[in-house]
């Protein structure tokens, strides 16, 4: 593996030199390497036994473009995977390769490609490295844009499943998008878009569940309107009869169709903005195949709750019930109020509320858009930000969450309430130095843990260095002892280079990004990351 990385780094140097070639149009050779390492040590303060000493997730990309032509490669290395990533992410190999051509009307890709139909509830092939997700498709994708107001896409191939070169289960699809106003009222600032998609999954894997249909046909329709400060869009998805699992049911395996409805509305004014989203999903796990107990989805169903920046506000995140069904939504509002006499330094606020219910199950199956299955999640959040001058800024935040949670100490499941608060102060000492201090607290009636506190200090040295130290303490708990989860690190950024290293003790729990979560066990050790983009 060391020889492989050395060879790749040499190619990146060649890529940089080629990119500087100015005399002739030889195209552009580009490249990147992103590598993360974890080194784990024994810690008697933790109850979880250490299962590995180190791990690495490394991704290397090479690309070449000239005029309308493009080509690229991606090499993935998990030797072994870092803690918290799926155990099927292991080994190394060339997992991405493509060639494509595009002009004003056509875009053709052969090899591995990513793509999305509509909101992604029907189909999305994407990569999210911090979650260990890569669902690229090996095949062909063709996008045709014959008119400024019409776009059509067809694609087909084999989706990637972890480190398998590609799943024998095939996927085929088509999508179109039509601007209804542009052909008739070209000068209007209003936009009315109509779209539709079709997807066929053909499961050719050996060992497929006997009762599971080999092919699943699904489709969706969507409509979007925007004018000035207002926009609205909606999408409906129907999934054909497919195999599904619900561990809460006596007959937990079933074969039936699924469906989903998503509605969004946004208002954006100079001093106020609001966004409302509502979604109902029923049996919408769009599995690549029905042969594995840990299948990978062909679609994208993220949590629609707020993505928090403070650690104690995300101790117990909401996880989407795509195996059965859920209904709910969220509202976000943000704006500014002139406070303090200086209109250039108003009080900025953001408010969020969200609620999701389990979809009830009856003799005829799940009740679509139903809310009678019990509360899954409720949250309210307020954040206030104020600049007091060129050198000082403060942020205060408070939130409440309610959700069912299973005790890790064996007390069963209970409905828990958590109230969290945070205060954040930034002092711009000079044009080069900055200091940020943050304190957080969380109170809970959960039987396992009732009290958390956290503090962090960050010191920045422009243009590239950032140092930090933090400590999170579970000070009221029914566990055997209170535990400090300390962490300290430094990061550096310069042009094409990003690097960071830290050492600390990390609690067990869900880590989330973009509405998707993965479980990470508790551990103590070093984390290092290096990213080079040329």
Entry keywords:
534 residues, globular, 1 helix, 24-stranded antiparallel barrel
Describe this structure in words.
There is one protein chain. By secondary structure, this protein is mainly β. The protein is 3% helix and 60% strand. It is built from 1 helix and 32 strands. It has one helix at 2-19; strands at 28-41, 54-66, 69-78, 91-102, 106-113, 115-117, 123-125, 127-128, 133-134, 137-147, 150-159, 170-179, 191-202, 215-227, 230-245, 253-269, 272-282, 325-337, 347-358, 361-362, 365-366, 375-387, 392-406, 413-427, 433-444, 449-461, 465-477, 483-494, 497-506, 509-513, 516-520, 523-533. It has a 24-stranded antiparallel β-barrel. A two-stranded antiparallel sheet has the order 6-7. A hairpin with a 4-residue loop joins strand 22 (375-387) and strand 23 (392-406). The longest helix has 18 residues, at 2-19. The radius of gyration is 25 Å and the shape is globular. The two termini are 22 Å apart. Residues 1-19 form the signal peptide. Pfam families: DUF6029. InterPro entries: DUF6029 (IPR046070).
Helix/strand layout:
Blueprint: H1 2-19, E1 28-41, E2 54-66, E3 69-78, E4 91-102, E5 106-113, E6 115-117, E7 123-125, E8 127-128, E9 133-134, E10 137-147, E11 150-159, E12 170-179, E13 191-202, E14 215-227, E15 230-245, E16 253-269, E17 272-282, E18 325-337, E19 347-358, E20 361-362, E21 365-366, E22 375-387, E23 392-406, E24 413-427, E25 433-444, E26 449-461, E27 465-477, E28 483-494, E29 497-506, E30 509-513, E31 516-520, E32 523-533
Antiparallel strand pairs: 1-2, 1-32, 2-3, 3-4, 4-5, 5-10, 6-7, 8-9, 10-11, 11-12, 12-13, 13-14, 14-15, 15-16, 16-17, 17-18, 18-19, 19-22, 20-21, 22-23, 23-24, 24-25, 25-26, 26-27, 27-28, 28-29, 29-32, 30-31
Signal peptide: 1-19
Keywords: Signal
InterPro entries: DUF6029
